[in-house]
Write a structure and sequence with these properties.
With about 50 residues, the chain is of the alpha+beta class. Helices cover about 15% and strands about 25% of the residues. It has one domain: Rubrerythrin, domain 2 (Single Sheet). The mean pLDDT is about 95. The structure holds zinc ion.
Length: about 50
């Protein structure tokens, strides 16, 4: 079973949902900037 979680870019607050954060942020091009966050944190960042 694969557990998908939320990941947030430390630099530009981009939210990614998946098994792991992208190696390079598609928005700000920063490498290894993603940190795992809870669903609640991700929703807060996205403005829900
Ligand atoms: Zn970014």
């Amino acid at each position: 079973m694969v557990n998908k979680t939320f990941w947030r870019c430390n630099i530009c607050n981009d939210i990614h949902y998946g098994i792991a954060g992208p190696e390079t942020c598609p928005t700000c091009q920063t490498k290894n900037a993603y940190v795992e966050v809870t669903k609640e944190e991700a929703q807060k960042v996205m403005g829900f």
